[in-house]
Amino acid sequence: MEKATTLALEEADPAYAAAYLDMAKEYLLSDVLAHERNMFQSAVDDLDGHIRRLMDQSLGRGLDAGMVPQTTFWLLDGGVVVGTSRLRHELTPQMLRESGHIGYGIRPSRRGMGYGNEICRLTLGRARQLGMQRVLLTCKDTNIPSARIIENNGGVLENKVVSRETGAIMRRYWIDLR
Ligand SMILES: CC(C)(COP(=O)(O)OP(=O)(O)OC[C@H]1O[C@@H](n2cnc3c(N)ncnc32)[C@H](O)[C@@H]1OP(=O)(O)O)[C@@H](O)C(=O)NCCC(=O)NCCS
């Protein structure tokens, strides 16, 4: 497996707008699941507004109903944005049940190269910096790469639940950051 080397995890910021837009356009042309693609439509339609909303979410501003403050990070490899992660600062009961604190995605052309393991590791470091002591990560029972990533990063399976949103079986893992 090709190894990622010159990696940096940066908070969403206009400084990386062009590199982020390049990834967003790739998602829109890719054959990933529709819900993944849809997350990048607003970036292509209104890049400045999209980035501003991400920055506001990190500060807890302008949150839609049911949302909590969350910080979005971009994983950069040599100036190329290769993936995104989100760190929720707190959880609603529904998030505690099936969404968890951290989500991530790697751009379609860069999957299978080790970036998923790295974005999770680096985002856990940010959670630790924020003073979080343990975090919940969840994934679909069938999402083997994501389950591997969580287990490689110290995830301990608590249980599996049926998602009330999708009906899918979700694995719930805890990672101790202390
Ligand atoms: C899940 C995802 C983030 C994985 O990213 P990635 O960069 O391809 O992952 P990595 O290359 O770091 O591989 C992670 C692990 O999965 C394994 N893996 C990768 N692709 C695999 C596949 N198709 N089948 C089985 N295992 C696979 C790797 O071997 C690795 O395990 P190892 O380090 O123990 O060998 C990526 O596929 C993605 O963005 N998917 C869509 C969004 C998503 O599902 N996010 C997670 C939501 S819970």
Highlighted features:
single chain; 178 residues; alpha+beta; Aminopeptidase; four-stranded antiparallel sheet; three-stranded antiparallel sheet; 28% strand; binds coenzyme A
Give a verbal description of the structure.
The protein is an alpha+beta fold and 178 residues long. The protein has a single domain (7-176), classed as 3-Layer(aba) Sandwich (Aminopeptidase). The protein has helices spanning 17-29, 34-38, 41-45, 47-58, 93-98, 115-129, 144-152, and strands at residues 7-11, 70-77, 80-88, 102-106, 134-140, 156-162, 169-176. A 4-stranded antiparallel β-sheet has the order 1-2-3-4, sandwiched between helices. A 3-stranded antiparallel β-sheet has the order 5-7-6. Strand 2 (70-77) and strand 3 form a beta hairpin. The mean pLDDT is 96.
Number of domains: 1
At the fold tier of CATH, the topology name is Aminopeptidase
Cross-sheet strand order for the largest sheet: 1-2-3-4
Give a list of the ligands: coenzyme A
Q: C-alpha Rg, in Å?
A: 16 Å
Q: Which geometry do the CA atoms define?
A: globular
Secondary-structure element pattern, one letter each: EHHHHEEHEHEHEE
The chain-level structural class is: alpha+beta
Mean pLDDT: 96
Helix content: 25-40%
What is the highest CATH level, the class? Answer: Alpha Beta
CATH A-level architecture? 3-Layer(aba) Sandwich
Please describe the biggest sheet, giving its number of strands, its sense, and whether it closes into a barrel.
4 strands, antiparallel
Low-confidence stretches at least 5 residues in length (pLDDT < 50)? Answer: none
The span between the termini is 31 Å
Looking at CATH, the homologous superfamily is: Gcn5-related N-acetyltransferase (GNAT)
Number of helices: 7
| Extended strand count | 7
- Proportion of strand residues: 25-35%
